[in-house]
Amino acid sequence: MYTKKICLFFIAGTLLWLTITFRFSINIPLLPKETPSANTLKTTLKLPKDFKITLFAANLPGVRTLLPTPTGDLIATLPKKGQVVLLKKTPPNPKTTRQAHPLLSGLNLPSGLALYKNWLYIAESHAIGRIHYDSVSQQISGDYQTIISNLPNGGNHWTRTIKFSPDGQLFIAVGSSCNVCEESNNFRATLLKYHPDGSHGEIYATGLRNTVGFAWEPDTQRLFGVDNGRDFLGDNTPPDEINWIQKGHFYGWPYSYGNNHPDPQYGSEKQHEITRSTPPYHSLSAHSAPLALLFLKHPRFPAHLREKALITLHGSWNRSTKIGYKIIAVDLNDSTPNRQHDFITGFETQGNVIGRPVDIAEDRHGNLFLSDDFSGTVYKITYQPDQNQ
């Protein structure tokens, strides 16, 4: 108890120092004591008609990326524990809590995951590795191979998202090391592209402060990513972003934000950089912290929803009143102000936080899975329309 009081005193002192130093509100939610109950999920979270959310797995501290396997299991990363774990589709005993089975341990902040041609790819903070994975036996085999070893390590934004493009190329998102600065490592604040074996690396796009989530639109194959704007410019500045990410384009950071507005610290005398910057495709609320972007593919979902991108908003910390803490649906083919709608809300109510959405993934059967690193929980979201209507 004494140690707990010291920790709380230290946290409070740190927040007070940050508030005084930056003259903006620091509003960080404290950790909940337990996973939200089934009744809390039912009464607090709001979903569209015919959608249902249930608990899939708990006791997963800091759970981040979710990767459904071809057989319906789920692979997840626990960065702070240095682990990649398997969450089996069917637990040994349906009455017990689903257990996490470690696949790999001792990793350096593993965050991103991808499956490609029987290889499980893992993004550590400093490197990309891979190992053979058999989805039928639910086992890894052989040696863990590091195929890319020169990524900048750590920093403010230490996660590394990885995905394979429709033509089989490996893309890696590397965030900035800082809130706002001019980086010395040109891999920072970029999207990188490699062959599957880690060769032929290139910088695909730049000026992306922290693009954690990205995905290809199924019909057009356009690549979209969500980017987190800088902190300490007030409650409503700068907007977070959805960008149409194109090869060779520069997206503004650290010299500009939003519709090419000069950054007050780094925009001076950088008009050339600001002019060549590609503005956001769509702006999101400042500090809402978008982390994942998913285009639904399964035909069981309503057609209107399959035309939109689902985006998780992790929620603000650098804001006087909280914002985010939900999942939204955005129609990227609609240019009207009504292109954005709430999909799941209720993780934050009047300042009370029960969850912070991180990653959202779809399996082959049309089930959705959502990770919450705040309570260490994975949720399952199903769509079950009433056939009698």
Verbal overview:
It is globular and about 65 Å long. The protein is mainly β. A hairpin with a 5-residue loop joins strand 2 and strand 3. The N terminus is likely disordered. Helix content is 10%, strand content 35%. The strands form 8 sheets. Strands 1-28-27-26 form a 4-stranded antiparallel sheet, covered by helices on one side. It starts with a helix and ends in a 6-residue tail after the last strand. The protein has 2 domains: 30 residues, no CATH class; 349 residues, TolB, C-terminal domain (Neuraminidase), CATH 2.120.10.30. The chain is built from 4 helices and 28 strands.
Give the helix level as a range of percent. under 10%
Largest sheet, in brief, is:
4 strands, antiparallel
The CATH architecture of the largest domain would be 6 Propeller
List the domain count as a whole number: 2
Strand order of the largest sheet: 1-28-27-26
The CATH homology group name of the largest domain: TolB, C-terminal domain
Stretches with pLDDT under 50, minimum 5 residues: 1-7, 15-22
Query: What's the CATH class label of the largest domain?
Result: Mainly Beta
Q: What does the radius of gyration come to?
A: 20 Å
Basic shape: globular
Rounded mean pLDDT score? 92
Q: Give a count of the beta strands, DSSP E runs of length 2 or more.
A: 28
Class of secondary structure makeup = mainly beta
Please state roughly what percent of the residues sit in beta strands, choosing from under 5%, 5-15%, 15-25%, 25-35%, 35-45% or over 45%: 25-35%
CATH topology of the largest domain: Neuraminidase
The CA-CA distance between the termini, in Å, is 56 Å
Number of helical segments with 4 or more residues = 4
